[in-house]
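Aggregate trends can hide what the representation actually does to any particular protein. The sequence in question and its structure tokens are set out directly beneath this paragraph.
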Amino acid sequence: MKHLLLFILLSTSMVFSQNELTHDVYFNTDEYDVPLTEENRILLFISSLDTIPIQKISIYGFCDDRGSNDYNLELSQNRANTIKELFSGYGIDESLITNVNGKGEILLKVLNEEEVHKIRGLNRKVEIIVTPKTEEKKPEKKPVEVTEIKKDEPKEKKKVTTEDIAKGTIKKGDKIILDKIYFKTSYSYVTPESKKTLENLAKLLVDKKNIYFTIQGHVCCTQMSRDAIDKKTKKRNLSVARAKYIYDYLAKKGVDKKRMKYVGMRRKFPLGGDPKFDRRVEILVTYVGKED
């Protein structure tokens, strides 16, 4: 039974076909708020979609077998709605989300009574199915005799910086790499030369009260996308600790906590080059309201 349960756990986040990517989000009993650990996993999943052209996203909510049919149907729909809002908040175009359905309860099927609690935990979930766009085969063109063909150079994507915050040109989905904010190796606090940049960032965000965002922490030099160990606490959560350091600093300087979230991205998205550039934080803009 232990081997069967392990297989179920591993299979929940696997790609189940060549054309679709899946991710499962698990909830606490009778709740539809996403636990922080699950939100971190969702963010990693969303970030992995950055380079994938998406055709559609389907979101299906489920409950365990406890509770009435009507209660479970409503709870499963609320769970699906929560994930849709989360996806939109992290910059996913809502028009891509074509299905958001609560499916109610999943009937309990176990062979061993000792596994009931674990199986029910796996049934309290939302299934996310991402269908990428299929590439259309372009007809072959006959060669044309020309003396010279000039190719347009690819346009470089505009880099978003803190200047865009000051100008008011920032928009939902923008990601700002905070230049000149670097962390001491293996610790969650910034180097002395980073303090001035951090102070300027705080002033901008205190002034621009209409910007909501998530602070993403990163680390360098670990294997297989693992998080690094914080030497101060001895915990393997350094990317989270770095994001929280910035969160606490901004809150202390007057940025409303309701506007901010923080997550650890581990070493999932290295920039390459000098390791100090991976000891970083980035800001993902999740909402921009009208300025007062």
In short: The CA atoms of residues 183 and 190 lie 4 Å apart. The chain has seven helices and eight strands. Confidence is low (pLDDT under 50) at residues 1-17.
